[in-house]
Protein backbone atom coordinates (compact mmCIF):
# COMPACT_ATOMS: atom_id res chain seq x y z
CA UNK A 1 0.00 0.00 0.00
CA UNK A 2 1.08 3.53 -0.59
CA UNK A 3 0.19 5.85 2.32
CA UNK A 4 -1.16 9.21 1.24
CA UNK A 5 -0.67 12.70 2.74
CA UNK A 6 -4.12 12.43 4.40
CA UNK A 7 -2.67 9.54 6.48
CA UNK A 8 -0.08 11.78 8.19
CA UNK A 9 0.02 12.61 11.88
CA UNK A 10 1.04 16.00 13.31
CA UNK A 11 4.74 15.01 13.18
CA UNK A 12 4.57 14.30 9.45
CA UNK A 13 4.80 10.52 9.76
CA UNK A 14 2.06 8.04 8.91
CA UNK A 15 -0.61 8.00 11.62
CA UNK A 16 -0.31 4.87 13.77
CA UNK A 17 -4.06 4.32 13.55
CA UNK A 18 -3.77 3.93 9.77
CA UNK A 19 -1.12 1.24 10.21
CA UNK A 20 -3.21 -0.53 12.86
CA UNK A 21 -6.26 -0.49 10.58
CA UNK A 22 -4.32 -2.04 7.70
CA UNK A 23 -2.83 -4.66 10.04
CA UNK A 24 -6.35 -5.61 11.15
CA UNK A 25 -7.47 -5.97 7.53
CA UNK A 26 -4.47 -8.18 6.67
CA UNK A 27 -4.96 -10.28 9.79
CA UNK A 28 -8.67 -10.75 9.18
CA UNK A 29 -8.05 -11.93 5.62
CA UNK A 30 -5.66 -14.63 6.89
CA UNK A 31 -8.20 -15.61 9.57
CA UNK A 32 -11.11 -15.76 7.09
CA UNK A 33 -9.12 -17.87 4.65
CA UNK A 34 -8.38 -20.42 7.38
CA UNK A 35 -11.82 -20.43 9.06
CA UNK A 36 -13.79 -20.07 5.81
CA UNK A 37 -16.29 -17.79 7.57
CA UNK A 38 -16.80 -14.30 8.94
CA UNK A 39 -14.46 -13.32 11.75
CA UNK A 40 -14.39 -10.45 14.23
CA UNK A 41 -11.41 -8.95 15.99
CA UNK A 42 -11.54 -9.62 19.73
CA UNK A 43 -8.04 -8.63 20.82
CA UNK A 44 -4.86 -6.94 19.74
CA UNK A 45 -2.49 -9.10 21.78
CA UNK A 46 0.56 -7.05 20.89
CA UNK A 47 1.48 -4.21 18.58
CA UNK A 48 4.98 -2.77 18.28
CA UNK A 49 5.96 0.14 16.04
CA UNK A 50 9.63 -0.32 15.22
CA UNK A 51 10.21 2.90 13.28
CA UNK A 52 8.26 5.74 11.64
CA UNK A 53 6.76 5.43 8.16
CA UNK A 54 6.63 8.34 5.72
CA UNK A 55 4.51 8.92 2.64
CA UNK A 56 7.44 7.98 0.44
CA UNK A 57 7.43 4.38 1.67
CA UNK A 58 5.63 1.52 -0.03
CA UNK A 59 4.12 -0.48 2.84
CA UNK A 60 3.42 -4.23 2.76
CA UNK A 61 1.54 -6.33 5.31
CA UNK A 62 2.27 -10.04 5.76
CA UNK A 63 -0.10 -12.15 7.87
CA UNK A 64 0.19 -15.77 8.96
CA UNK A 65 -1.90 -17.94 11.24
CA UNK A 66 -0.07 -18.62 14.50
CA UNK A 67 -2.65 -20.74 16.39
CA UNK A 68 -6.13 -22.11 15.86
CA UNK A 69 -8.45 -22.82 18.76
CA UNK A 70 -12.02 -24.08 18.92
CA UNK A 71 -13.64 -20.76 17.97
CA UNK A 72 -10.69 -18.35 17.92
CA UNK A 73 -7.65 -17.89 15.73
CA UNK A 74 -4.44 -15.96 16.43
CA UNK A 75 -2.69 -14.21 13.54
CA UNK A 76 0.77 -12.64 13.42
CA UNK A 77 1.25 -9.66 11.09
CA UNK A 78 4.56 -8.11 10.07
CA UNK A 79 4.75 -4.74 8.35
CA UNK A 80 7.56 -3.82 5.96
CA UNK A 81 8.33 -0.56 4.17
CA UNK A 82 10.34 -0.10 0.99
CA UNK A 83 12.23 3.14 0.64
CA UNK A 84 14.55 4.56 -1.98
CA UNK A 85 14.25 4.21 -5.71
CA UNK A 86 17.82 3.47 -6.74
CA UNK A 87 19.11 2.20 -3.41
CA UNK A 88 16.13 0.12 -2.36
CA UNK A 89 15.93 -0.67 1.34
CA UNK A 90 13.29 -2.87 2.95
CA UNK A 91 12.66 -2.12 6.62
CA UNK A 92 10.54 -3.98 9.15
CA UNK A 93 8.49 -1.15 10.64
CA UNK A 94 5.89 -2.90 12.84
CA UNK A 95 4.79 -6.27 14.15
CA UNK A 96 1.51 -7.33 15.72
CA UNK A 97 -0.51 -10.28 16.95
CA UNK A 98 -4.31 -10.27 16.85
CA UNK A 99 -7.04 -12.69 17.91
CA UNK A 100 -10.21 -13.20 15.87
CA UNK A 101 -13.33 -15.23 16.61
CA UNK A 102 -15.21 -17.21 13.96
CA UNK A 103 -18.84 -16.13 13.63
CA UNK A 104 -22.09 -17.61 12.33
CA UNK A 105 -24.39 -15.50 10.17
CA UNK A 106 -26.54 -14.76 13.25
CA UNK A 107 -23.55 -13.28 15.10
CA UNK A 108 -22.91 -16.21 17.42
CA UNK A 109 -19.54 -17.92 17.78
CA UNK A 110 -18.94 -20.99 15.66
CA UNK A 111 -16.43 -23.80 15.70
CA UNK A 112 -13.51 -23.52 13.32
CA UNK A 113 -13.49 -26.51 10.96
CA UNK A 114 -10.38 -28.68 10.60
CA UNK A 115 -7.77 -27.44 8.15
CA UNK A 116 -8.45 -29.19 4.82
CA UNK A 117 -4.76 -28.82 3.91
CA UNK A 118 -3.75 -31.07 6.82
CA UNK A 119 -4.71 -34.76 6.76
What does this protein look like?
It contains one helix and four strands, in the order H-E-E-E-E. With 119 residues, it is an alpha+beta fold. The longest helix has 20 residues, at 16-35. 17% of the residues lie in helices and 42% in strands. A four-stranded antiparallel β-sheet has the order 1-4-3-2, covered by helices on one side. The protein has a single domain, classed as Hotdog Thioesterase (Thiol Ester Dehydrase, Chain A). The N and C termini lie far apart (36 Å). The protein has one helix at 16-35; strands at residues 38-49, 58-68, 72-83, 89-103. Strand 3 (72-83) and strand 4 form a beta hairpin. It is elongated and about 45 Å long.
H/E element string?
HEEEE
Largest sheet, spatial ordering of strands: 1-4-3-2
Mean pLDDT rating? 95
Helix content: 10-25%
Looking at the structure, what is the overall shape? elongated
Structural class: alpha+beta
The CATH architecture is Roll
Largest sheet descriptor: 4 strands, antiparallel
Radius of gyration, rounded?
16 Å
CATH H level: which superfamily?
A: Hotdog Thioesterase
Number of strands: 4
**What is the name of the CATH class?**
Alpha Beta
Pfam families: 4HBT (PF03061)
Family: Belongs to the acyl coenzyme A hydrolase family.
Keywords: Hydrolase
Domain HotDog ACOT-type: 1-106
Amino acid sequence: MLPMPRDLNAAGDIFGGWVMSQVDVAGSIAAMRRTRCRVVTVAVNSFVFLQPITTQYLVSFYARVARVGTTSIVVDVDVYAETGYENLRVLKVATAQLTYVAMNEDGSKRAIPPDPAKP
